[in-house]
Design a protein that fits this description.
alpha+beta; 3-stranded antiparallel beta sheet; about 15% strand
């Protein structure tokens, strides 16, 4: 459960919230509505950890996977839509290096045991995230959101704003957060 207790937030002289207390229960569909400038985006940014409250507390369970789709996204480097969608799982997808390290170490050495534990943890994580299907799932999500297949390997900065947002949404859907 996500809880807000006596939350206050203000920008300059404008008070967005004062004494807000609320809870968002698991498995409940919750909507956030209000006029422009009411602070809906600020509240979502607070929940995503991108902004702090001025007073009060926000409690989010540590194991809760939270996904946030920003209104605007700036891309600092050349990255394709497919790479961007798969980025949260890059470590899993680049596991070949770890297997090579394991092969280089002397069996029985401390380094070998460390690498073996990491391989075991990685394999467990691959099972949890269905890691062997990540790339296929990413492509299916991109296609389902209408991102043209010919653009999947191009620089995401060359796509229209709508396709960039769909790419970020695809990334969130692949991560499969508990709260979106």
């Amino acid at each position: 459960m996500i809880t807000l207790s006596n939350v206050e937030k203000q920008y300059g002289a404008k008070i967005l919230y004062r004494g807000v207390t609320a809870s968002i229960n698991p498995k409940c569909r919750t909507g956030l509505v209000g006029p422009n400038g009411a602070g809906k985006t600020v509240l979502l940014r607070i929940l995503a950890g991108e902004e702090n409250v001025d007073a009060g507390t926000v409690s989010i369970p540590p194991d809760l996977r939270l996904g946030y789709l920003p209104q605007e996204m700036v891309f600092e480097r050349d990255i394709s839509p497919k790479e961007l969608v798969l980025e949260p799982f890059r470590r899993l997808l680049e596991s070949d290096r770890l297997f090579a390290r394991l092969a280089e170490e002397k069996p029985g050495s401390e380094e070998y045991r460390k690498a073996a534990r990491e391989v075991e943890r990685l394999q467990s994580e691959m099972m949890v995230h269905n890691g062997y299907q990540l790339e296929a799932r990413a492509e299916a999500i991109l296609a389902g959101l209408g991102v043209p297949q010919g653009a999947w390997e191009a620089d995401v900065r060359r796509l229209s704003g709508g396709y960039r947002m769909r790419t970020i949404l695809a990334r969130l859907l692949l991560v499969s957060p508990d709260f979106l």
